[in-house]
Amino acid sequence: MNNDHKFKRGLMTGRFQPFHNGHLALARQAxxxxxxxxxxxxxAQFNFIEKDPFTAGxxxxxxxxxxxxxxxxLSKCYIIPVANDENNxxxxxxxxxxxxxxxxxxxxxxxxxHLARSQDPSLAVKRPKFxxxxxxxxxxxxxxxxxxxxxxxxxxxxPAVAKAIEDVGGVERIKVLARxxxxxxxx
Length: 187
Prior knowledge:
alpha/beta, 5-stranded parallel beta sheet
């Protein structure tokens, strides 16, 4: 382990729908404490629904572009999509079977924190230092996109993510999904 870091490899999970400035701040925090970082794209099997508009591949692209743009050393990062396991009692074992080993988990989600601590009490669970949590969240960003407030959402995501959203037709997709009767979230 590098003497400058407490942990060899940290892990952060999220749906990253989309990857925003809060996620970027957490990645930087983790990399200041770890030699490497695994970014797990959770719910990788979901896409083209209101809550999860982007595909796993699009999210990989967004995260990679945002980290590169921010000057993060990508040789220290792994970006891995992981499909959900419906059995929460085996969540951590499932996660560990899909990613490189890790000795610290970064999460601001109380449920993830509870699962991790209950399934491996020796795992270091690190809480992020949140800034602007009400603004920096995917639901808020998607709502601002639906409302058509370009200036209202673009400052909440790294510029590379805003470009990626536009490049994949994400603005229109989010608007269509929000008003669609065929949206499974409305069934």
